């Protein structure tokens, strides 16, 4: 069709099938090399095929893959331009208007790819890590690619988002926290105010020495238990512990709350009933 319209010569049109073969061979060769590259990295790093690549290994995988495809693209271009005499610009250069349209069409995809490269180098998050993303909430990075990323939310929904859009949102990496604070406010009866000083001291000591909590406390941290306010219906005591990052955070907090209730009961301190608070 291009030859009939006079856009390209018949001789050049006859070479297009060979050019398509060259591009196909280049794609197959690039796919083979990237597969071998990933297999070798997994073997060296002792990472099973079912597990995602993380950290420096994932970064090396992406940068190495980009280098392979850049080399394949350069080789294919050289083959088309020099050996076959095939000028790619002969097809693409069909006027300034089409060039502008082509540039605008590539703007968003290129932005996604560039942002993927920037994210891979800066490494704010990696596959398998838990993040908190504005507009999405808490989720796990199932796959981070050059063009887009896939996120799994807490409700098991799979969100696919272009990298340029994801980079425009505030992202907090929950997997890289050095510690996690667990805090609760204990609302207690005013009648037990004389017993609070002893109860607070006992609570600090019990949390520090509790076998279920001791191994989870962040090294060097101490439990914080303080009287923080006199509410309308209850005395408010805030208890806080600093624990190591763990997927068992809810279980640890449950044990923490049970210890608080146990110590208060042992010291004769009771919680303020909800009905009394409402009055």
UniProtKB/TrEMBL annotation:
<dbReference type="GO" id="GO:0055085">
    <property type="term" value="P:transmembrane transport"/>
</dbReference>
<dbReference type="InterPro" id="IPR006685">
    <property type="entry name" value="MscS_channel_2nd"/>
</dbReference>
<protein>
    <recommendedName>
        <fullName>Mechanosensitive ion channel MscS domain-containing protein</fullName>
    </recommendedName>
</protein>
<keyword id="KW-1133">Transmembrane helix</keyword>
<dbReference type="GO" id="GO:0016020">
    <property type="term" value="C:membrane"/>
</dbReference>
<keyword id="KW-0812">Transmembrane</keyword>
<dbReference type="InterPro" id="IPR023408">
    <property type="entry name" value="MscS_beta-dom_sf"/>
</dbReference>
<dbReference type="Pfam" id="PF00924">
    <property type="entry name" value="MS_channel_2nd"/>
</dbReference>
<dbReference type="InterPro" id="IPR010920">
    <property type="entry name" value="LSM_dom_sf"/>
</dbReference>
<feature type="domain" description="Mechanosensitive ion channel MscS">
    <location>
        <begin position="109"/>
        <end position="176"/>
    </location>
</feature>
<keyword id="KW-0472">Membrane</keyword>
